[in-house]
Amino acid sequence: MTSPAAHLPQGSLFTRYGGISALRSVIMMFYDAVLDSDVIGHFFDDVDMARLIDHQTKFFAMLLGGPAEFSDDRLARAHAHLCLTHAHFDEVGRILAETLDAAGFAPDDRDIVMAAIEARRSIIVS
């Protein structure tokens, strides 16, 4: 029997940065900073953070070449009711970039992740 990781592309960012448990730690760091943000922290006042972190860990696993799938439709539905602006999106991007740097992502790898997020701006921003 082989592990699920055995089927992942060799050299994917997901495997390079330690898989799901390491990624979960990065996402937890990210949300610690998000909750401290005066710009976007209030969006999470009534959110089940454990559930959100689990969801976001899977989403970022997909972005990094890991074993998860999220459709653009699902992403749009999850954010439609929030009326997010470009300023909100930029704040998330700033915090994410700082988190990836703090987590030890190489600049080129951080830029790959940030480009994947930027590619979804029009889906997330109202």
Radius of gyration: 14 Å
Main β sheet profile: none
Q: Per the principal axes of the C-alpha atoms, what is the gross shape? A: globular
Structural class by sheet pairing and helices:
mainly alpha
**Secondary structure: helix percent:** 55-70%
Low-confidence stretches: 1-6
Please tally the helical runs, counting DSSP H or I stretches of 4 or more residues: 7
Number of strands: 0
Helix-strand topology string: HHHHHHH
What portion of residues belong to β-strands?
Answer: under 5%
Quaternary organization: single chain
End-to-end span in angstroms? 45 Å
User: What's the pLDDT, averaged over the residues?
Assistant: 91
Topology:
Elements: H1 13-16, H2 19-36, H3 49-63, H4 72-79, H5 86-102, H6 107-118, H7 121-124
